[in-house]
Write a structure and sequence with these properties.
Layout lengths: L1 E2 L5 E2 L4 H14 L1 E3 L2 E4 L5 E6 L10 E12 L7 E6 L2 E9 L2 E5 L4 E4 L4 E5 L4 E6 L9 E11 L10 E5 L6 E4 L2 E7 L1 E2 L2 E2 L8 E8 L3 E5 L5 E6 L4 E3 L2 E3 L4 E4 L5 E5 L3 E8 L6 E3 L2 E3 L2 H17 L3 H4 L34
Antiparallel strand pairs: 1-2, 3-24, 4-5, 5-6, 6-13, 7-12, 8-11, 8-13, 9-10, 9-12, 11-14, 15-16, 16-19, 17-18, 19-26, 20-25, 21-24, 21-26, 22-23, 22-25, 27-28
Length: 340
């Protein structure tokens, strides 16, 4: 890395290396189109991961982009209590606010620029609701909800939650681009967010006409355009699509109209199984999680009482039932609540 006279940090790669890496990138760039998912109440998200073309990017196994959407005083996009195992949820907002509550007793408001990192481990339950002070007003909601798989040796760890305020997220200006290092390390900056495996997550904001040179930052990496079209090494990339970057490739990003772009990546953890809100490396563990959630929601069997399963969220009385699907334990009719 080198610092420019204006204080900006720029990656230092010689011209032949950049040309070779970019030529490779242009020939192998793969784009993923979003799948629209209705989470209920007219609240639709763009889902990029998992997809038929890519089940994961590094440890990131789930990628939802919600909004921007305007909600009125009578609208509710609350997500009722629901369980997770084997993953960490990563919440990042561009607009709006959300109140997080979980079975550890955490109550945490998240606003734009901050990171909520909730590691489910062997099991956690949480809800995400509109803060009370915003319910009676017109408001905006816009952000990303991601899941990061946990390494197999940490799938049964105790659950935990960490909130990192926006002011603690490191950022830098690189010519006409602003870079925030939400997770991992890049451009000489390191995020304070702790992860269980190598991962990187950046919030990039390019001014109109800006160009940003990205060095190889992870074994696997992808870019996602939040608002406007842009280009990677002169290859057009539509907004709301995910561009899978070739391994060990440096790329040049250009945004004629300006763009906000998310970069995610890291080291692959190998194949993972996903079922509803659960992630695991073993099929049997998914079945056990389904049975445990059913036992808690229909029989009141909690982890605190039995030593296994899930505990309720303090102050919450409702929940999302286990959806009906072939081979799964059965409960009430499936709900269209978001799983996040």
């Amino acid at each position: 890395m080198r610092a420019a006279p204006d204080g900006a940090v720029r990656p230092k790669l010689d011209a032949p290396s950049l040309h070779r890496l970019r030529t490779h990138a242009m020939s192998t760039l793969q784009l993923l189109a979003p799948n629209a998912k209705d989470l209920g109440g007219g609240f639709t998200v763009r889902r990029l991961l998992p997809s038929a073309q890519a089940r994961a990017v590094g440890p990131f196994v789930f990628f939802d982009h919600f909004g921007p959407v305007t909600a009125g005083p009578g609208d509710s996009f609350d997500v009722r209590p629901h369980p997770h195992i084997g993953l960490a949820t990563v919440t990042y907002l561009y607009e709006g606010a959300m109140m997080h509550r979980d079975s550890l007793g955490t109550v945490q408001r998240i606003e734009p620029g901050a990171i909520n990192w909730m590691s489910a481990g062997r099991g956690i339950v949480h809800s995400e609701r509109t803060p009370d002070d915003l319910r009676g007003v017109t408001r905006r909601s816009h952000g990303l909800q991601l899941w990061v798989a946990l390494p197999a040796e940490h799938e049964e760890d105790a659950p935990s939650f960490a909130h990192t305020p926006a002011a603690d997220i490191p950022e830098t200006r690189i010519e006409a681009a602003q870079v925030r290092v939400l997770v991992g390390s890049a451009f000489g900056l390191a995020s304070p967010v702790r992860t269980a495996s190598p991962a990187v997550y950046l919030d990039l904001r390019l001014a109109p006409g800006a160009t940003l040179d990205l060095p190889p930052l992870a074994d696997e990496a992808a870019l996602y355009g939040i608002d406007n079209d842009y280009a990677i090494d002169a290859v057009p990339v539509p907004a709301f699509s995910m561009a899978l970057l070739p391994a060990a490739a440096a790329v040049r990003v250009h945004a004629p109209r300006g763009a906000r772009i998310a970069l995610v990546g890291g080291t692959s953890l190998g194949p993972r199984l996903l079922a509803w809100n659960f992630v695991a490396s073993r099929k049997e563990r998914l079945a056990q999680a389904e049975a445990d959630w059913l036992a808690m929601t229909t029989e009141g069997k909690t982890a605190q009482a039995t030593g296994r399963g899930f505990d309720p969220v303090p102050g919450e009385s409702d929940f999302i039932p286990l959806p009906a699907r072939p081979g799964a334990p059965q409960t009430a009719a499936p709900t269209r609540d978001a799983a996040a």
